Amino acid sequence: GQNIDQPTEMTATEGAIVQINCTYQTSGFNGLFWYQQHAGEAPTFLSYNVLDGLEEKGRFSSFLSRSKGYSYLLLKELQMKDSASYLCAVRDYNSGAGSYQLTFGKGTKLSVIP
Amino acid sequence: ETGVTQSPTHLIKTRGQQVTLRCSSQSGHNTVSWYQQALGQGPQFIFQYYREEENGRGNFPPRFSGLQFPNYSSELNVNALELDDSALYLCASTVDREPGELFFGEGSRLTVL
Fold first, then answer.
1. By percentage, how much of chain A surpasses pLDDT 70?
2. Residues of B with CB below 8 A from A44's CB?
């Protein structure tokens, strides 16, 4: 099974930088994903890490340390529209099912204030 | 717009009834997975279909079942509904059998009374 932990809520100011952490425990690790979900909407893909290090994509960056079971999502130059839930998801191989599965954390609700 | 459509968007059922939810995948996507998302929680993996066969299942009882059709559209069926089945049901498609960049539909919100 998997155990994925991320903070429940965070608040940050418009224009600032915020880091959302995610820790996980799993076997058969095969990648870590971040999704954004606005209230009442479907999740949308943000980033993917399979090797250690930082992946940058515009204002968003994601970091992975496989040895520490740790990832973070960094959001720069925060905008009001960034207020959403951010979901950390781990892909691992389920040997019993013979397939890969994506398991989500409970999400971090980010509120961006003026 | 992800190209994944789900129906119905909202529905209300009573305990013990059965429900069928439908999903039309993005064109060219041969893998579909279903998730249950309770309020304030992350999506919970129900099962995945690849080329019409189930190839992965989460910790959900057998009364949750599914189908994938030759055109890669999909159904989720839930029998003997319970109050705790009230949730948003999300369908997601991808182009290969290793889930990753999933393209989600807007979901079907089920309320069980």
1. 97
2. 2, 104
**Separation between Cα atoms, residue A13 and residue A19, nearest integer Å:** 12
Mean pLDDT computed over every residue of chain B: 91
Whole-angstrom Cα Rg for chain A: 14
Q: Chain A residues with CB inside 8 Å of B55's CB? A: 97-99
Check CB contact of B5 with chain A, cutoff 8 Å. Answer: no
B40 CB within 8 Å of a chain A CB: yes
Q: Is A73 exposed, middle or buried (0-12, 13-18, 19+ CB in 10 A)?
A: buried
Q: Please check whether residue A89 is in contact with residue A105, taking contact to mean a CB–CB distance below 8 angstroms.
A: yes
Q: Is the pLDDT reported for residue A34 higher than 80? A: yes
Cβ A83 vs Cβ A75: under 8 Å = no
- Enumerate the H helices of chain B as residue ranges: none
Residue B99's pLDDT is: 57
What percent of chain A stands above pLDDT 90?
78
